[in-house]
Amino acid sequence: MPADPAVLAEAKALRQQFEALGGQVVKADILLPSETLLDLYGEDIRARAYVTQDPIRGEMMLRPDFTLPVVQMHMETFAEPARYTYSGKVFRKQEDAAGRPSEYIQVGYEVFDGKAPAKADAEVYAAIAKALDGLPVRASTGDIGILMAAVRGLSTLQIRKDALLRHIWRPRRFRALLDRYGGRSSVPLTRAALLASADPWANAGPDIGLRDRADIEARLAFLREDASAPPLSSEEIGLIDAILSIRESAPIALSHLRDIAVDLPAIGPAVARMSERLDALAAKGVDVDDLDFEGSYGRTSLEYYDGFVFGFTSTLRPDLPAVATGGRYDALTRVLGQGRSVPAVGAVIRPDIVHLLREGAQ
Amino acid sequence: MTVKLGVPSKGRLMDKTFDWFGARGLTLSKAGSDREYSGRAEGIDGLELVLLSAGEIPRELAAGRIHYGVTGSDLVREKLPAWDRQVREMMPLGFGGADLIIAVPQFWVDVDTLDDLDAAAAQFRRRHGFRLRIATKYHRLVREFLQANGVADYQLVDSQGATEGTVKNETAEAIADITSTGETLRANGLKTLSDGLIHASQATLFKSRKAEWTTEERATMSALEALLRL
């Protein structure tokens, strides 16, 4: 569907704002290799992105966002600090929300700067806030980095922490794991029987498939280690719950988190980063006393955000998707850079929603 | 105009559907020779029998080209996004039962639940460098099920037949497929996960939410639904 000229004008104006901040304009392909996207996002991306077939290049996807091409382009030079901006269509299936457009423009601003991450977080947030100035929107913020630091700081087996970290973005599975490690839910009967049996291989069928005996022995060893380890203490689970349940203005949230850090010192550095970020935001003119912070914000997105996260939604039209979303995605760059990670933070705005809000405000 | 009832065009599913409606006073039959795909419905005025492939009935219902249709409840869920906004489930017919399940090698003595599958997938990806492959033709149902249950680090690979053989052939590590007795699974060295039942399917009468109804057709609808006690 050709974009409305008014939406195109919004997009152009937004991109010009980001260019004025030093953003180098990026052009990206629309057809992206499926393999890389699947590797990053997992099978769920197939439910969201259009998949197509190229006779030579194999399975391709219509660009579901610009993150992958922007990071890949950055990784050709690794120049820092670097700022990028782009404006173009993305394509998303809307099976669960049939009324929503399946192709729309995103205008983005991405900052790669490892020297001053708190300032980079604040710069991106402030750029988006300024672009939305005067519109009826409200921001929510969060910090996945604090939750990850809390999990890393639990006094339990590394394999349990790894499992929890893997499921930060899947709240249900995360909760189930916490309950099991904490002894709140019982060990499945079949597992108990397996661990109790003298020969776990007694009923094994034929050795078929790529997952071999060594794989299974390794996991049996994990299961035995897990079964003999003490449960995660209810105090520590309580601390995780306390972080997840925070819904306050940012300064009050910060003070809660400092209290939690007394019992869970591992989150100290992440909390200090949050404090630095709030200072940097205030220096950019953001009213941090009026900024909402939620301990579990950003956990259900498909993205790879692993630090500061934020989103702006309409206060008058809660039915609309978020007008802007963003966050820090250092982990994603580590996956794409084959070990070499680049601190990166970025955000996208939807000019179509900006336009709707502007019309509605008049 | 007539009210269109779509019914599978061949095999046991067709025969049993004919029997089911026959027992309730609606006689369905194929017209002409056995090879011809047109049918007759006797017992209610204004009702037309349309013989279709069971796999096409969901799409025809969603498009509103047929008013009612009999097909497997698995096919409707697999082929239609947000299926319950497009069709209404009227009545299970009590035959054509089969379970869509997840199965792994019996050799995997450490895996019995989805939780185990998830842990095995994480470990597999670390060791082998790619996501654990699950062979299936039910992509939507399997993906939604695994997503809802928080299983990660897997990928679906398409398999339109002989799916149970893919593990042995090393084109997949696990499968998701329809089974009624589980015998083929066992013969291929596979076992089902204890919580891996994705959907218990059976032949079901569906009604389109998209079809248009004239006054005459509404009368036919009432007569049919009264006959079937819906």
Structural summary, described in words:
The complex is a heterodimer of chains A (362) and B (230). Chain A has 15 helices and twelve strands. By secondary structure, chain A is α+β, with helices and mostly antiparallel strands. Among the domains of chain A are: 1-120 and 127-133 and 346-362, BirA Bifunctional Protein, domain 2 (2-Layer Sandwich); 184-202 and 211-230, no CATH class. In chain A, strands 1-5-6-12-11-10-7-9-8 form a nine-stranded mixed beta sheet. Chain A has a three-stranded antiparallel beta sheet with strand order 2-4-3. The two termini of chain A are 26 Å apart. Chain B is elongated, with a radius of gyration of 21 Å. The model of chain B has no long low-confidence stretch (mean pLDDT 93). Chain B is α/β, with parallel strands linked by helices and 230 residues long. In chain B, a hairpin with an 8-residue loop joins β2 (27-30) and β3. Chain B has two domains: 3-97 and 203-227, D-Maltodextrin-Binding Protein, domain 2 (3-Layer(aba) Sandwich), CATH 3.40.190; 98-201, 3-Layer(aba) Sandwich (D-Maltodextrin-Binding Protein, domain 2). Chains A and B meet through α3, α7, α8, α9 and α10 of A and α4, α5, β9 and β11 of B.
CATH superfamily of the largest domain in chain B: Periplasmic binding protein-like II
The end-to-end distance of chain A, rounded to whole angstroms, is 26 Å
Rg estimate of chain B, integer Å: 21 Å
Structural class of chain B: alpha/beta
- Quote the beta fraction of chain A: 15-25%
Q: Percent of residues of chain B in beta strands?
A: 25-35%
CATH superfamily of the domain at 1-120 and 127-133 and 346-362 in chain A: Bira Bifunctional Protein, Domain 2
Q: Tell me the major beta sheet of chain B.
A: 5 strands, mixed
Order of helices and strands of chain A: HEEHHEEHEEHEHHHHHHEHHEEEHEH
Distance between the termini of chain B: 22 Å
Number of helices of chain B: 7
Number of strand elements of chain A: 12
The level 1 CATH classification of the domain at 1-120 and 127-133 and 346-362 in chain A is Alpha Beta
The low-confidence parts of chain A are none
Sheet of most strands of chain A: 9 strands, mixed
Order of helices and strands of chain B: EHEEEHEHEEHEHEEHEEH
